[in-house]
Design goal:
The chain is an alpha+beta fold. The protein has one domain: Gcn5-related N-acetyltransferase (GNAT) (Aminopeptidase). Helices cover about 30% and strands about 45% of the residues. It contains three helices and five strands; from the N terminus they run ββαβαββα. Strands 1-2-3-5-4 form a five-stranded mixed β-sheet. The longest helix is centred in the middle third of the chain and has 15 residues.
Length: about 100
């Protein structure tokens, strides 16, 4: 089905990412599982921040926005996509205080 990356980047700051098999896209699995990880990070681990990055401006960026993350920056032509073309890297983050307000 897929997996979620979740690791402590710095004290109280966690990075997350996800990869899902195409046959499971657009069914809510990524949102539900990522939301559960975020809730765990802030609720149990007492995280200060959770962030993610993506080059996909459609599916991944819309998921990050749906999760309540805010755009924090764009690194232009930072990495290459699956076809070897240079692509922008979008950074999104969610602070604990914003997560609490949204609950």
């Amino acid at each position: 089905m897929g997996y979620i990356l979740f690791n402590e980047f710095d004290e109280g700051v966690y990075e997350m990412g996800w990869i899902y098999n195409r046959s499971f896209w657009q069914q809510g699995y990524a949102y539900e599982s990522c939301k559960a990880v975020i809730d765990y990070a802030f609720g149990k681990l007492k995280a200060h921040k959770v962030f993610a990055e993506a080059i996909d401006t459609v599916k991944s960026v819309s998921l990050m926005q749906k999760l309540g993350m805010q755009l924090e920056g764009i690194q232009r032509s930072q990495t290459k996509d699956n076809h070897g073309n240079w692509a922008d890297l979008y950074f999104y983050g969610l602070l604990e205080e914003d997560w609490r307000k949204a609950k």
